[in-house]
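pinned: reference chain
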Amino acid sequence: MKNFVIISAPSGSGKSTLCRALQVKDSSIHFSLSSTTREKRNGEEDGVDYRFLTNDEFKLGIAKDEYAEWEKIHGDYYYGTPKANFQHAVDRQQILLLELDVKGAMSVKKLYPDQTISIFVEPPSLEDLKIRLQNRGTDSEVRIAKRLERLESELAYKSNFDHHVINDSVDQAVIDILNIIQHENEGVYHGT
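pinned: its structure tokens
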């Protein structure tokens, strides 16, 4: 069974929205809770959206080899996925949904090649991406510029993903992703 479904996309492409919509559409899909050292955004909850850690707590986890993947993003914050999340999904034969950056996606794909479905999500256009980032209201112009600078390097990874989905409509993108999961797990996964 391909238990691990990775959703990766340039910042602002709607991967968080897609992940939430996938879980609403199919309750058998379990979200992998990542750890981060960044500040909580409005509406986020510790233990629901992320495990919010201090730098020292995160670095201790790195030293103990507790992460399947981790990275320091934008030179400011750590993000990582605990290895325990993967074992939990395998033990229970569950689909584990992971929202990862492109480098994290490649790390997980390398560790679990036979159990991973990697999906690269793109915005309809660069202009649409800029508008989404500005409309989020969570980032300064400087941070938006950093995110856009990173875009080219993220797009360079696109060919390393198993599947590509354009997020022009959340509803259609969710259908496309569920079809991919169904196709990759023919006879094993039936959704809800």
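why pinned: The mean pLDDT is 88. Residues 4-184 form a domain with the Rossmann fold fold (CATH 3.40.50.300).
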